[in-house]
Write a structure and sequence with these properties.
This protein is an alpha+beta fold and 183 residues long. It has one domain: Glutaredoxin (3-Layer(aba) Sandwich), CATH 3.40.30.10. 25% of the residues lie in helices and 23% in strands. It has five helices and nine strands, in the order βββααβαβαββββα. Homodimer; disulfide-linked, upon oxidation. 5 homodimers assemble to form a ring-like decamer. Homodimer; disulfide-linked, upon oxidation. 6 homodimers assemble to form a ring-like dodecamer. Identified in a complex with AhpD, DlaT and Lpd. Its main location: cytoplasm. It holds the Pfam family AhpC-TSA. Its EC number is 1.11.1.26, 1.11.1.28.
C-alpha cells in the first residue's frame, strides 16, 4: 500500500457530478484526474460497494463536512469500484445521497485502487481507505479500516488541520489548541 510521503498515482476517472438540486440526468458525469483540483489539498476516500449499509453513512458524514473541508482549501472525492451508472442509480434511490455535494468517482477498472495498494484481493473491491493528499500530490495521511468498520470524517478533518498547521501537534490536538514547543 502507498503511504505517507509517496506520490499519489496519476489517474483519469469518471465521476458523478455533485448536485444541490439533485442529479442533472442530461449531463451527470465529468472527468477527474490527479490535477483536477490543482493547488488544493485532496481528501480521497474509498468505499467497497454501492447499495450497502456502512458506506452511505460514511459518504453522508463526509458530505456534511464538505464546507469545512472547502474552508481549508481541500476537495473531497468519494471513490468505489462501481461504475458511474451504478453511482447515479444509488443517488436516485437513496434519500440521503440524492443531493450529495461531493463527486462519486468510479474506479471500475480498479486502476487507482490497485496503484494505491488498497484493492481487497478476496472481495475484488476497494478497501475502506482514506488519503489526505497535499497540493503537490504527496500522500500526507493514509488510513484503512476493515470492510465492516466505518470511519470518522471529523477525525480526517482534524488531521488535515494538523497537517496544514505545519507544527508539532500532540495527541487529540484540535484546531486552536496549543502546539508542542521544542527548546
Amino acid at each position: 500500500m502507498l503511504s505517507v510521503g509517496d506520490k499519489f498515482p496519476s489517474f483519469k476517472l469518471t465521476a458523478v457530478k455533485p448536485g444541490k438540486e439533485g442529479l442533472d440526468l442530461k449531463d451527470p458525469f465529468f472527468e477527474v484526474t490527479e490535477n483536477s483540483a490543482e493547488g488544493k489539498w485532496k481528501v480521497v476516500f474509498f468505499w467497497p460497494k454501492d447499495f450497502t449499509f456502512v458506506c452511505p453513512t460514511e459518504i453522508v458524514a463526509f458530505a456534511k463536512l464538505n464546507s469545512d473541508f472547502a474552508d481549508r482549501d481541500a476537495v473531497l472525492y468519494g471513490v468505489s469500484t462501481d461504475n458511474e451508472f451504478v453511482h447515479v442509480n444509488w443517488r436516485l434511490h437513496h434519500d440521503d445521497l440524492r443531493e450529495l455535494q461531493i463527486p462519486m468517482v468510479s474506479d471500475i477498472r480498479r486502476e487507482l485502487s490497485e496503484a494505491l495498494g488498497i484493492l481487497d484481493q478476496a472481495e475484488g473491491v476497494a478497501q475502506r481507505a482514506t488519503f489526505i493528499v497535499d497540493p503537490q500530490n504527496i500522500i500526507r495521511f493514509a488510513y484503512v479500516t476493515d470492510l465492516s468498520v466505518g470511519r470518522n470524517p471529523a477525525e480526517v478533518l482534524r488531521v488535515l488541520d494538523a497537517l496544514q498547521s505545519d507544527e508539532l501537534c500532540p495527541c487529540n490536538w484540535s484546531k486552536g489548541d496549543e502546539f508542542i514547543k521544542v527548546g
